[in-house]
Amino acid sequence: MRPILAAPDCDILCVTEGYAEILPEGGNIVTGGDDPGYPIVEGQKKVLLWSREPWESVEFGPKEMPEGRFVAGITRTPIGCLTVVGVCIPWHFAHVDTGCKNRRPWEVHLDWLSSFGRTAFATASRRTIVLGDFNQRIPRSWTPKLVYAELRRAFEGLALSTCGELPWQNGDARGASAPNAGQRLWKASLSEVRRGSNKDQLIDHVAHTQDLSLVHTATRHGAERTVGIFPRRTLDGPLSDHFGVWADFTAEPPPTPGVPPAGSSSVSVSDL
Question: Which of 114, 159, 253, 270 is deepest in the core (most CB within 10 A)?
Fold first, then answer.
């Protein structure tokens, strides 16, 4: 898994329900800890953030938020300092039939969204990215309307650049094998979801403040690329039960009186 995560040459990576040893060597890692109420697999963390540069001002979420599913920090990137928030929003059956076995479907998920919506990260105005496993498709498919509305309310101050459907159908070989004969990267263009469509959607998402813009086509190390997708499996076996995603962003520079805006540069963020 490590060479697959390293292949897009990202400046920031977020891994959910994973291990530090699968992240590229030479970076800096902060983690969100463990999820109380479930058996702890040695070494596994609910959410991990990796950056080429050191992390500062690391936070682990408000006390009322389910533990282990949130970590935030500030790191330097090619487009300046970014506040990055890694999340693993609980799935709809968290602690229903497993774990503590004392919750109703979607209850823990909604508790997380409510807690996040009250943080300063949800209302940030500059240089903030929130990424990870949102455990919802955007726009909604089978999720209850009330639950989807809570997700949109919690993230209403942020833009979402991973909405829509992938260009292949559910069960397509690209969802279960290595991309394009030996390449480690898929390129995908997310399109509007059509009624009755059976195409795949992401549940790993990237949200960000309005001063950051997704680069639909960028040139880096001499290669053009668009939104990237990590495979669910390779010829050697399964990697995940859903797709990871990476993307490039540019940032609007802070305005300086009397100085025209400078050109923006690119940063990659990724989630698996």
Answer: 270
